[in-house]
Write a structure and sequence with these properties.
The protein has 200 residues and is an all-alpha fold. 52% of the residues lie in helices and 0% in strands. It has two domains: 93 residues, no CATH class; 80 residues, no CATH class. Helix 4 packs across helix 5. 20% of the residues are buried.
Length: 200
């Protein structure tokens, strides 16, 4: 209700199972959009209308909670306020715009062969992985980052950089993303001199 929901609309969210931040977080963007649309379809003049700004705020809070989950940070309902929603709404907008930018400009490196220079190939692979998003829109380069444990007081300029350096290296998202990167490495090194260095 702090974000412009009427009491009836807030109750409608709760009656649809969105009773805490974790349940909001686990909704996909499309599922949340469908839920908002459903609430509007149910509107019979009983206060179920959700203002557009309030819709944007709840989308931003879902995005924030999911980002906090991915980097292993707490996300509490007491932290939710309008400035937080507006700040993460802007971050969400930036991420969405980045995701529709042409990613085919950065090509995957050529397969690693006998005469391939390691340093150049490694940089090309990192650049490629940095341009590709995996599960939960995390840049895939985090799978092969050098520091497993992030620096405690590091400050990051973008959500992209934060995810790259702080995304947790366990859980369902990590397992899926790790599999994607392994399959890529396998396709680029199989039957070549670097294959023995690819851990299973």
């Amino acid at each position: 209700m702090r974000h412009g929901f009427s009491q009836v609309a807030a109750r409608e969210l709760s009656s649809n199972g969105i009773t805490n931040l974790n349940r909001l977080r686990t909704l996909t963007k499309d599922a949340l959009d469908r839920l908002i649309k459903q609430i509007h379809c149910d509107n019979q003049g009983a206060g179920l209308f959700i203002p557009f700004a309030s819709q944007q705020h709840v989308r931003a809070i879902r995005f924030w909670a999911n980002q906090m989950h991915i980097i292993g940070s707490p996300y509490n309902i007491d932290d939710v306020n309008e400035p937080l929603a507006e700040m993460w709404g802007e971050s969400m907008k930036i991420e969405q715009e980045a995701s529709v930018a042409p990613s085919d400009l950065i090509k995957a490196p050529e397969p690693f062969k006998k005469n391939t220079k390691w340093r150049t190939w490694k940089e090309s692979l990192l650049t490629y992985l940095n341009s590709k998003q995996g599960q939960s829109s995390v840049p895939l380069a985090y799978i092969v980052r050098e520091r497993d444990i992030p620096e405690r007081d590091a400050v990051y300029k973008t959500v992209h950089d934060q995810l790259m350096n702080k995304a947790i290296l366990y859980g369902a998202e990590y397992n899926r993303n790790n599999g994607i990167v392994f399959d890529l490495l396998q396709s680029l090194t199989l039957n070549g001199p670097a294959w023995s260095w690819i851990p299973e």
